Amino acid sequence: TYLNEKSLQMPAKCENLQDDVESLSNKIDGFSEDDYLQIITNIQSCPWKRQAEEHEKFRAQLASCCDAVENFIVSKNNTPVGTNLSYEVESRKKIHIGESIFNMFPVSQPFMDYPYNQCAVVGNGGILNKSLCGAEIDKSDFVFRCNLPPTTGNISKDVGSKTNLVTVNPSIISIKYANLKDKKAVFLKDIAAYGDAFLLLPAFSFRANTGASFKVYYTVKKSKARQKVVFFHPKYLRQLALFWRTKGVAAFRLSSGLMITSVAVELCENVKLYGFWPFSKTVEDTPVSHHYYDNQLPKQGFHEMPKEYNQILQLHVKGILKLQFSKCEIA
Ligand SMILES: *[C@@H]1O[C@H](CO)[C@@H](O)[C@H](O)[C@H]1NC(C)=O
Ligand SMILES: *[C@@H]1O[C@H](CO)[C@@H](O)[C@H](O)[C@H]1NC(C)=O
Ligand SMILES: *[C@@H]1O[C@H](CO)[C@@H](O)[C@H](O)[C@H]1NC(C)=O
User: Fold this and answer.
1) pLDDT value for 5
2) 271-300 pLDDT, tens per residue?
3) List the disulfide bonds (predicted).
4) CATH code of domain 51-72+113-323
5) Spatial contact of 115 and 103, defined as CB atoms under 8 Å apart
6) Is residue 303 flagged as an active site residue?
């Protein structure tokens, strides 16, 4: 019935979007890509308006559970020397924060210009190919990216080149950079593209992450590279996972995309998401690769992508953040 109503541009259709998105998340027969694409078609045909009150309300919820402003990154302030820090996922395991680890931490939260006005969270979806969103992304005050994606060469006109913070999944260090043994120079050359950005690692999520994360820290430090290595606070991530669990996202672990989106909603007045597209095709039915740089499929069962995406769609229809679904308008 939506398809018939679409041409009429009925305002009621736009008013019901919130209910429509929520009802998709409650569907018992699971996730259907076509249901999502139809709702997204409707969402795109309705005007988007920032709702400052909704944003404040949601930000207050996040601040009371998680408080990214103080707790998102491990700092000397929030983690005194001598702390026995519990891991995020293997929470019965602890790491003792002695002087040498403590000295890797920044004194306090390093986000000097908080709150930021306009932030871009750039996901890695193939939907960014030929999007021409690069210029718009680069105009943002703060640009978040995930897992060391390429930003140089021809792709920069689609994904931009500005980066203020980029997450690093420890598995990329072992797989792509051979644990920084043989491929240290390649790594240093690749991260040079991010200027003086923060490299953010989940050093204290799994015990197996710690060594690789510290290795990144020392590699960057010894080479006097401009990037600054920081670590996700495991307690922040645990509380964030509990928060999203109350909304129905019960994955083994949140994706870095949702972690960073949650941080951005707390740190920024305006948040725009690019390259978030967990579907195999566009609304016009053309195939989309999983990433803009390869077509590797996600690990099954690790994240709960449909549930996560549903929450992000809800934030979009509530006017808390804006998802860019299609090509960017060139001014
Ligand atoms: C951390 O653990 C060590 C060894 O189990 C213990 O001696 C120390 O008191 C603990 N520190 C704190 C702050 O609980
Ligand atoms: C960029 O695009 C041009 C023309 O489309 C092509 O000749 C060139 O090889 C590309 N460069 C890179 C780095 O992919
Ligand atoms: C996006 O670009 C990558 C790398 O050139 C390519 O492998 C992929 O197929 C492209 N995807 C789309 C949807 O054009």
Assistant:
1) 46
2) 999 999 988 899 999 999 889 998 766 555
3) 119-268
4) 3.90.1480.20
5) no
6) yes
